[in-house]
Amino acid sequence: MIPESASPRASRPARSLPPAELAAGALRTFFNIAAAWRLDAEQAMRLLGLSSRSTYFKWKKDPAGARLTPDTLERLSYVFGIYKALQILLPRADAADDWVHRPNDAPPFNGRPVLERMLGGQVADLYVVRQYLDAQRGWS
Q1: Per-domain residue ranges for the chain?
Q2: Neighbouring residues of 84: CB distance < 8 A, sequence distance ≥ 6
Q3: So what's the pLDDT on residue 91?
Q4: What is the spatial distance between Cα 138 and Cα 131, in angstroms, rounded to a whole number?
Q5: Does residue 96 sit in helix, strand or coil?
Q6: Would you call 64 exposed, middle or buried from its count of C-beta atoms within 10 A (0-12, 13-18, 19+)?
Q7: How far apart, in whole angstroms, are the C-alpha atoms of residue 19 and residue 140?
Q8: Residue percentage of the chain with pLDDT more than 70
Q9: Which end of the chain has the smaller Cβ count within 10 Å, N or C?
Q10: What burial class does residue 107 get, using C-beta atoms within 10 Å of its C-beta: 0-12 exposed, 13-18 middle, 19+ buried?
């Protein structure tokens, strides 16, 4: 085991991305996931917590120009976690991407498609899906 003081990371200060770089990367990733999940603009806006179509399309055109709120960053974090968990649990990309559209009998979804729960509009809806998937992975 390498002592913490000998680790190359120990001597480097933590680096955080500038807000524009963070927004650009996060939104590009989100739009790729939205495409994989076959979301329309309204569904994608709902996941982001947006009500303004003009803001949504501006972000899509120029992700680096977006100013992301803590709420939006939290939503993005949950979406990324859901996507990653699905890729692990269902290694075939098409199965992982289709999962959100299929009805699910698990208690949080009550036989409805998972995407319906995710589109509930609250950050808590995304949290519930992420928590469910983490439990399926044995991370609860």
Answers
A1: 18-136
A2: none
A3: 87
A4: 10
A5: helix
A6: middle
A7: 32
A8: 85
A9: N
A10: exposed
